[in-house]
Write a structure and sequence with these properties.
- By secondary structure, this protein is an alpha/beta fold.
- Helices cover 39% and strands 23% of the residues.
- The strands form three sheets. It has a six-stranded mixed sheet with strand order 2-1-3-8-7-6, sandwiched between helices. Strands 10-11-9-12 form a four-stranded antiparallel sheet. Strands 4-5 form a two-stranded antiparallel ribbon.
- α4 crosses α5.
């Protein structure tokens, strides 16, 4: 597989800046921190980071790192601190429940040298949702880093907690998706335009055409993915750019380069 980072053509820069406020080569960046011994032990499969990958890609955010770490306050604090300094947005997944191994809140607080404070607002949400005063385990979920922002996620149980540029998301996939949806417009950049070409020749047979395509379109993100067990095609090619015209020109050029009969389909 060969991939090139997509840049922007000079003539396209001004439209981007006018539309989004982001310089074209400074799109918002992000890192994901998956937290949980259950992920590292293989007892639970991580489906949250693939979901966030797809959503951030659709929004035009450049996701640059995914890290999976154990339930350890010091380890969480260390990685949150590093990611927060490196990227525009950081998303944590997991570790914010009522049990002994839920340590994300303490780790995020430690990362920013903030004390943990009791949130009457969250405690009130819990009581309204359950119809009775919160239990001690439930009250643990009302303890958050001092100065954190709370974003209503459309339910009474628990808001999205934000500390500086860190968005603290739950590990339960259904809840994580609901919380992310409540804030997704905060993360918008310029999304990529994607074209797929399915080829019924081996990767080695088309490699020369791909190399020459990149010489003509050096700003193209070009991916080549062999498929061993597919009967209809052998390689899936992906062409991506934030400039729709650029990716279309590259696609037209690729289709002209490939041998007659080599193309199974184009999407």
């Amino acid at each position: 597989m060969r991939v090139r980072r997509a840049l922007t053509r000079p003539g396209f820069r001004f439209a981007w800046l006018r539309e989004t406020g982001y310089p074209p080569q400074a799109m918002p960046t992000a890192g994901i921190l998956v937290i949980g011994n259950e992920i590292l032990s293989g007892k639970v499969a991580d489906t949250n980071s693939p979901y966030l990958c797809r959503e951030l890609r659709d929004l035009g955010v450049d996701l640059e790192r995914i890290i999976t770490i154990p339930d350890d306050v010091e380890v969480i604090a260390q990685h949150v601190r590093v990611l927060s300094r490196a990227y525009d947005f950081v998303f944590t997944s997991g570790g914010i429940g009522p049990t002994h191994d839920d340590m994300t809140i303490a780790g995020v607080a430690a990362a920013f040298d903030r004390p943990i404070e009791f949130s009457e607002a969250i405690a009130g949400r819990i009581e309204r949702a359950t119809g009775k005063p919160p239990s001690e385990p439930q009250l643990k979920m009302a303890r958050i880093p001092a100065g954190a922002s709370l974003l209503d996620a459309g339910d009474l149980w628990f808001p999205l907690v934000i500390v500086e540029n860190v968005y603290i998301l739950p590990g339960i996939p259904e809840l994580l998706r609901k919380k992310f949806e409540s804030a997704r417009e905060r993360f918008r950049g310029i999304p990529f335009v994607l074209k797929r070409v399915y080829v019924n020749q081996m990767e080695s047979e088309i490699a020369e055409h791909l190399n020459s395509l990149l010489e003509q379109f050096p700003e193209l993100m070009l991916g080549s993915y062999p498929r061993i067990q597919e009967e209809s095609f052998r390689v899936m090619l992906t062409l991506e750019s934030r400039d729709a015209g650029y990716v279309q020109d590259a696609l037209d050029s690729l289709l002209e380069r490939l041998p007659t009969g080599a193309i199974y389909k184009v999407e």
